[in-house]
Amino acid sequence: MELFWHRRDLRAADNVGLAAASGAGDDPDRGPAAPVFVFDPSVLDHASDVRVRRLLDGLAALRDDYRARGSDLLVARGDPETVLPRLAAALDAERVVWNRDYSGLARERDAGVRRALDAVDVAREAHHDAVLHDPDAIRTNAGDPYSVYSYYWKKWTDRAKEDPAPAPTEAGLADTDRLADAADAVDGTDPSGAVADGGEAATLGAAVGDLPTPADLGFAEPEADVGPAGTEAARERLDDFLDEAVFAYEAERDYPAREATSRLSAFFKYGEIGVREAYAATEAAMAEAESDSRPEDAPEQVEEFQQQLAWREFYTQVLFHNPEVVSENYKEYEEGIDWRDDPEEIAAWKRGETGYPIVDAGMRQLREEAFMHNRVRMIVASFLTKDLLADWRHGYDHFRERLADHDTANDNGGWQWAASTGTDAQPYFRIFNPMTQGERYDPDAEYITEYVPELRGLDADLIHEWHELSPTQRANAAPEYPSPIVDHSERREAALAMYKRARGED
Ligand code: FAD
């Protein structure tokens, strides 16, 4: 028996650690595996309503998948350093197995778990699973981690990729009775006698397949609809996307009103689809792209999609090698950046009431769907940092709270790119004009009017000229929609001056 600890890999298929622990991998004598998810209070401290809802949906899908395979999911709560050794003892497991999580906090937690297991002589094993090439695998010729994406991509794309990991067989998974006995053995035990915040004795909890509600964990139901979860939904989405949209991906991906991207990010974040499986499917699409039935540029379109998978791995290795970027600029400015940080402007940005239609549409999409289109993420991030001159950390914190796909590495990478403080970032003098961006990428204002009802029925031209209209014209056209809270041209100059000062240039 082996205990398999799920974290950001909520799937049974193409799961490297689970394949090993269940005997589906190279060593068929291993297994069966008892799968567990642990609600860790210190991780929940950093969670949000959106992400708790999305996590619970992902866990429900995983549990159902295990049930269909004749097993179930153990659901425990407590500090993994206490829970895992106890569960391992209750199951008489010879090993605890998991897949690596590369963020700084997770690595600290894992070090604690390793020590706790060593102390009771339980073997443990950690696998690379979340990315095709682990963060140490791709380095410059001088042996350093990459900070420039284009060079990283070149090596990433040239390297051989592993095949998807085999799914566990029914015999490779612990049966429900064994899981129930283990859950009973640890449930309700009080390892420390400590008293939790609520005044109740701190207890360990474990059950089979019994998931808490958000309220049990101290969270509310989110305002946003977090969308579907689980491996089946992810596969459906990937298949749909690779059926047609991928062949026009590069040409269409920047237009938020067109359904031109995969919308797989939350599935990747929770690991509901394996990256080897996804990549193998893109290779099959590439083979089709190279056939005569597709336009000549179809292979480049598919490759552009593979490039996004590589961006995810690029930022994973940036975070792995520089865990401090979570709160600090990757790129240091000589004098430090003197952010303006006006609370009212930041609040208007969060509410989607800046008077810049594409910015407001994006912020409202985030509120309603816990998602935002990539082009629009870039626009709203540029607006916050370079029009409102607000520290990127305000934006990062807001995204972290609201995005269902919040991923520390990608979110941080995206924000620091926009703020010109990151690896391979936008140069500081490159400042998006939010009106031109709206006009170029949402010419008919379809995306804008989907999320900003106050502007419905207006000519797209009028919407894209909103900042140039007189107060009377605005009042006549859309009385409920705000006037621009800042003047883009003035703020552009102020931003340039702010960065130049930071660079010690004046
Ligand atoms: P697709 O275009 O279909 O791309 C496929 C997959 O590639 C995505 O699901 C994602 O896993 C990965 N990917 C795509 N673009 C990027 C990118 N620029 N960087 C890293 N990986 C990428 N992505 C997140 O997954 N989580 C975040 O928290 C996040 N925050 C962001 C914040 C900012 C300010 C910016 C500018 C970008 C952020 N991104 C983030 C990257 C990107 O916007 C999303 O991955 C993408 O919009 C998700 O939609 P999709 O699945 O349809 O993407």
Describe this structure in words.
By secondary structure, the protein is mainly alpha-helical. It folds into three domains: 2-130 and 175-208, Rossmann fold, CATH 3.40.50.620; 231-321, Serine Threonine Protein Phosphatase 5, Tetratricopeptide repeat (Alpha Horseshoe); 343-502, DNA Cyclobutane Dipyrimidine Photolyase, subunit A, domain 3 (Orthogonal Bundle), CATH 1.10.579.10. It has 22 helices and six strands. The protein has helices at 16-21, 41-44, 49-68, 80-91, 104-119, 149-158, 176-186, 231-243, 249-252, 265-269, 275-289, 298-321, 343-351, 357-369, 374-387, 392-402, 408-418, 434-441, 446-451, 460-464, 471-477, 488-502; strands at residues 2-6, 33-39, 74-77, 95-99, 123-127, 205-208. The chain has a six-stranded mixed beta sheet. Helix 4 packs across helix 7 (176-186), helix 8 (231-243) packs parallel to helix 11 (275-289) and helix 16 runs antiparallel to helix 17. One of its GO terms (molecular function) is deoxyribodipyrimidine photo-lyase activity. FAD binds at residues 249, 261-265, 305, 308-315, 405-407.
